[in-house]
Amino acid sequence: MKYTIKLQIDGRAKRVSLRITPYGEVLLRVPKGVDVRRALAWCQSNNEHIEQTLRDMAEQGVLRAERTKEEIEALRKVAKVKLRKALDEASAKSGIGYNRLSIRATRSRWGSCSSEGNISLSLYLAELPDELIEFICLHELCHRLHPNHSPEFHTKLNQLVDGREKELLKMLKKHRIG
Ligand SMILES: [Zn+2]
C-alpha cells in the first residue's frame, strides 16, 4: 500500500508522533532539533501499523477525497468573515489582544500564535461548531500570555471557558481537521 508522508517540524511538539489524515496521508510531526532521518526511520518502523490503519479506514469508508480548489476557495470566503468575527469576540471576552490574523488552508493544526502576537487559523476551523471555534480562538489568545502549554496556560484557558476545557477538548477530538 502506497502512502505519502508529510513532514512537519513543530517547535511545540515534545516527541515524534504520527497521525493519519482522512485523506490517507501520514503526518509525521517532529520536534525542532530532532534528527529528521531518525524520525523517518521511526515512521518506517511503524509501517505495519500505518498500513493496517489505512486498510481499516478504507474498509470503514472514512477515507475522503481531496477537496477541489473551488470548494476550498468557497470555504475560505466564509472562514475570513466567520473566524475574524469569532477571534474579535474572543479577544473582547478575554481582554487579550492580538496583532494580525491570517487564515490558511492548514491541516496540521487548528491554529497557532507567534511571539509577535500574530494568530493563524486553519480555514477548516470555520466548519466546526461555534463553541469550538471560540475555544480555539481563546486557546491561541492565551498563548499571548503563556507561549507554551504550561499549567498556568491551562488555568487561564479553563477560566475563560468557564471550567469546560476538558469537555471542549473531548468534543474537539471528534473532529478531524480538513
Ligand atoms: Zn497551543
- Distinct small molecules: zinc ion
Mean pLDDT: 94
Q: Distance between termini? A: 23 Å
Determine and state the CATH class of the largest domain.
Alpha Beta
Q: What does the overall shape look like?
A: globular
Q: What would a concise description of this structure say?
A:
The chain has 6 helices and 6 strands; from the N terminus they run E-E-E-H-H-H-E-E-E-H-H-H.
Descriptive keywords:
three-stranded mixed β-sheet, binds zinc ion, 6 strands, 2 domains, globular, 178 residues, Zincin-like, alpha/beta
Describe the structure in your own words.
The protein is an alpha/beta fold and 178 residues long. It folds into 2 domains: 5-60, no CATH class; 69-173, Metalloproteases ("zincins"), catalytic domain (Zincin-like, 2-Layer Sandwich), CATH 3.30.2010.10. It has 6 helices and 6 strands; from the N terminus they run βββαααβββααα. It has helices at 36-45, 47-60, 69-94, 130-142, 151-160, 165-173, and strands spanning 5-10, 17-20, 26-31, 101-104, 111-113, 119-122. Strands 1-3-2 form a 3-stranded mixed sheet, with helices on one face. Strands 4-6-5 form a 3-stranded mixed sheet, covered by helices on one side. A hairpin with a 5-residue loop joins strand 5 and strand 6. Helix 3 (69-94) packs across helix 4. It starts with a strand and ends in a 5-residue tail after the last helix. The model has no long low-confidence stretch (mean pLDDT 94). The structure holds zinc ion. Zinc ion is lined by residues 139, 143, 149. Zinc ion (ZN) is lined by residues 139, 143, 149.
